[in-house]
């Protein structure tokens, strides 16, 4: 009996792993068009302690989103590759990926020169590829529960619907400040 249960668990795990790998390569929709300029953000503020991201225009809030962070989200500033922390500091949204493994993604310019120097002084690589993104492709149905825990490798995650809104309202070059 134990062998049958173990076999079933292994089979389910393999199926979920395979589903995730296949869906990571499939983008189900085209990215949205850019919002009119008067609806676009000119800054982003992330408050890690509150798990909140705010889009700003002329200092006024134009959008607020509840977020998930790196699985070590309360561990302070990202210091090295693999620490699963979300960085803290001032960065730029410098490029976007419409075909990422998660539903759309905006790249945060981590690591900056200070991050690189601090990591080198500690004898580590700083890591990188920190994004704002939706849920992994094919897993959008988890939107209602994904914020119950921090699950990314250091990225900032929102629902797919929220990511489509953010994608349309955040142009490349937008500054982002990530606070503790």
In words, what does this structure look like?
Strands 3-2-1-8-4-5-6-7 form an eight-stranded mixed β-sheet, with helices on one face. By secondary structure, the chain is of the alpha+beta class. The longest helix is centred in the first third of the chain and has 23 residues, at 2-24. Helix content is 23%, strand content 23%. The protein has a single domain (35-179), classed as L,D-transpeptidase catalytic domain-like, CATH 2.40.440.10.
Describe the structure concisely for a colleague:
This protein is of the alpha+beta class and 180 residues long. The protein is built from three helices and eight strands; from the N terminus they run αβββββαββαβ.
Shape descriptor: globular
Kindly, what is the distance between the CA atoms of the first and last residues, rounded to a whole number of angstroms? 49 Å
- Assigned CATH class: Mainly Beta
Strand order of the largest sheet: 3-2-1-8-4-5-6-7
Cα-atom radius of gyration = 18 Å
What average pLDDT do the residues reach? 88
Can you tell me the CATH topology? L,D-transpeptidase catalytic domain-like
Structural class: alpha+beta
